[in-house]
Amino acid sequence: MKSKIFTTIIVIGLITGFSSAICPPCNAISLGSNKQKKEQSLLNAGKYSLEEKQYENSIDFFTKAIGINPNNAEAYAKRGNALYLQGKYKDAVSDYTKAIELDPKRENLYYNRGLAKAGLKEYASVVEDYTKELENNPQNINAYLNRGYTKLLLKEYLQAIEDFNKALEIDKKNEIAYHNRALAKRYLGNYEGAIDDYSKLIDLNPKAIDAYNNRGVAKFYLKKYKDAIEDYSKVIEIDKNFSRAYYNRGIAKLGLNKFEDAVLDFTKELEINPKNDLAYYKRAIAETNLEHYSSAIDDYTKAIELNKDNADYYYERGSLISKTGGDLKLAEKDLNKAIELDEKDSEKYLTRAIIFCKLEMYLPAIDDLNIVINMDSDNTKAYDLRSYAISSLNEAEKNNKDK
What we know:
Layout: H1 18-21, H2 34-51, H3 55-68, H4 73-85, H5 89-102, H6 109-119, H7 123-136, H8 141-153, H9 157-170, H10 175-187, H11 191-204, H12 209-221, H13 225-238, H14 245-255, H15 259-272, H16 277-289, H17 293-306, H18 311-323, H19 328-341, H20 346-358, H21 362-375, H22 380-402
């Protein structure tokens, strides 16, 4: 099972720049008639309620203003903001769309509609809105950042990098652009490029804990385990309770075969995150290498209790039980479950065949080995074991006849 590393990503949506992206007030309405005065009064009340996070009141005021003047783009835009902040993304999209119809050149309307569509996971349409926003306002750095982030979600990594590059042209010290550009580079397998971006971010902000963590991840993928450990240790120095930092450092120590140190890190991780099944699983691997077999089996069992659908957990526990002379029927049961969950892994069939041979169940062993050979025609171990199983089966049948 490939090591899962816990990483962090800076999400550019709700977190970054929404308040600054809220559409600015249009030119003040000329105060003439009582109707216009009432409309302006309702708009002002709606804005105040929005600032005070009284969203229902805000929506009510803007709705009344729209009742007086159905062509007031600002009222639709502001009501859209209140709806968005309530998580009512579909309704917010409707209001932004109406505001765009009334005032298509108004800055930030496409941007805000893009945010609302992101809440609905309509990512292709989100990109279109950010693109429209940039046509109206080419210096809207948040639009570049959000469009780049959306392209990450769409796995359009090269295009995402282009947007983050553009954001850095506007603001060469933008931490979010460096962070997410590094992530795009990682997805492309450009780990050295990712490390360079994370390092630039750390130069800008020496306390950028996510950057240390993610740089450690990139170093881990390059098998620079010692360097990765240094970054994870820095994370822990900044925040000893940072989510998954001990786990990440533990798997880097596994890469250096520092099994005792790895056990300590996984144990610390489990003190902080007792439901991290992967920490139990990885600690079991370290314990197995230390020949602490009973503890390892206990940890595989804990991992299974937390995640009953992971085939590798059953496979490793069953394999260890078999190798250490434990209850072979329990080992068989584990391999049955592992194969039920993952029927395309030849190693699982091979391990079950070994258990069947130990139980002198040669026919099912031969069936499993045939499956292995069909999956991997170059697996010499499977051929050798099948020859053994066939020979043992023939010998058993001969002995039965002689009786």
